[in-house]
Write a structure and sequence with these properties.
single chain; alpha+beta; Cytochrome p450; six-stranded mixed sheet; three-stranded antiparallel sheet; 12% strand; binds protoporphyrin IX containing FE
Length: 388
């Protein structure tokens, strides 16, 4: 079995470098063992990743971070296995279903249009700060009923949890404690005076006839906080980097907005931002690897979603890609709960942006840098266009 010193947390790189490194590894190895940290398996092919994601009995979500087999925290529902996991998903389903997202779409569009209008006349912007952060973050805070004027505090916590260097473990734990304390207070307040937001609903949830333990409710809030504040931001940063870098694709969505849903789907495929892990529950031979109970497995979706056996010409973003079975939202029981919301936000962002902003390009190419701590994403994306 091949052993490599593969470091998935190698910090900051030029945009596209992580995909290139992972792509080369995938082309050479169906699977390998990384000796980095405590060691973990890496599976690079679509077929294997799908099998792992659909088999929670063998590949548990007790840890979803390949570098940390015994985490001191528990994110709900992400780090639960069935049947406990299934009960949570049943509870959450309606809140994130297509109809619930559809009901919010006009507000999503209104907020999006206001942000683009505020940016367009300047002829340039730093896309991450001006748009990719505030657009989904405000929508998310409104969904939960959290005060939008505390956005900066929330973002500082989120950065400490998800983007701190691996050495900043204490800062990460402290930020998680602060987020948890904030949610505790907010939920208590809603028990006395409920509104029509998600936290008010959560305050009265029951599972199997009993009230949900306070710790579990807070563990759910913590996960939602991370998933809701960071993911669409990261995905938008790659999407707009791509459209700035590939003017033909940019022109296609501007000229024919009907292409946007397909474009969004293939951007999510080609620029997968999450690289989940699973914990092996029993000794098993899989993809030619002798895995032991307790081992960690990493699924680098960025490489898996560009597996040429499933996606012809995988580096190309193609709005008409047929039968796009990408794993950008994973698969199996943990398939992203927020996928409908994320897709809607991405689609609306591309529609409203290209309706208002003329042809744009990267202002300073070498300033666009991707980070690979936790989620992949861009730190900065300076864009420029001819002011109207
Ligand atoms: C483009 C944006 C997004 C991407 C690419 C994405 C991707 C993912 C992936 C790959 C997983 C599975 C992780 C695993 O299997 O371990 C996941 C799970 C999850 N996502 Fe997303 N996500 C996005 C946006 C969102 C949003 C906006 C929300 C909520 C507001 C959200 C909520 C969740 C939750 C709660 C889970 C855990 C589901 C479970 O364990 O059953 N996601 N997401």
């Amino acid at each position: 079995m091949t052993e490599l010193h593969f470091d998935p947390l190698a910090g900051r790189r030029p945009v596209g470098a992580t995909a290139a490194i992972l792509g080369e590894l995938r082309d050479r190895h169906r699977a390998f063992r990384s000796t980095f940290g405590r060691g973990f398996w890496v599976l690079t092919r679509h077929e294997d990743a799908l099998a792992v994601l659909r088999d929670p009995k063998t590949f548990s979500s007790a840890s979803v971070n390949a570098l940390d087999p015994d985490p001191r925290y528990r994110w709900i529902p992400e780090m639960l296995d069935p049947p406990e996991h299934t009960a949570w998903r049943t509870l959450l389903r309606d809140h994130f279903a297509p109809a619930a997202v559809k009901a919010r779409e006009s507000r999503i569009r209104e907020h999006c249009a206001a942000l683009v209008d505020a940016a367009v006349t300047a002829g340039e912007c730093e896309f991450v700060d001006a748009f990719a952060v505030p657009f989904p973050a405000v929508i998310f805070l409104e969904l939960l009923g959290l005060p939008v004027d505390r956005l900066d505090t929330f973002l500082a916590w989120e950065r400490a949890i998800l983007h701190g260097p691996p050495t900043a473990n204490q800062a990460r734990i402290t930020a998680m404690q602060e987020v948890t304390a904030m949610f505790d207070e907010e939920i208590e307040r809603r028990r006395a005076d409920p509104g029509d937001d998600l936290l008010s609903a959560a305050a009265s949830w029951r599972m199997n006839g009993a009230a949900i333990p306070r710790e579990d409710l807070l563990a759910f809030c913590l996960l939602l906080f991370m998933a809701g504040l960071d993911t669409v931001t990261a995905q938008l940063s790659y999407a707009f980097w791509h459209l700035a870098e590939f003017p033909d694709d940019q022109r296609a969505v501007r000229d024919d907005p009907a292409l946007i849903p397909g474009m969004v789907e293939d951007l999510i495929r080609a620029y997968a931002i999450v690289q989940p892990g699973r914990k092996v529950t029993r000794d098993v031979e899989f993809a030619g690897c002798r895995m032991k109970a307790g081992d960690m497995v990493m699924l680098p979706l960025l490489a898996i979603n560009r597996d040429p056996a499933v996606f012809p010409d995988p580096g190309r973003v193609d709005p008409a890609r047929a039968g796009n079975r990408h794993l950008g939202f994973a698969a199996g029981p943990h398939r992203c709960l927020g996928a409908h919301l994320a897709r809607t936000e991405m689609r609306v962002a591309l529609e409203e942006w290209h309706r208002r902003v003329p042809g744009y390009r990267l202002a300073a190419n070498d300033d666009a840098v991707e980070h690979a701590y936790g989620l992949l994403g861009l730190d900065r994306l300076p864009l420029t266009w001819r002011p109207a």
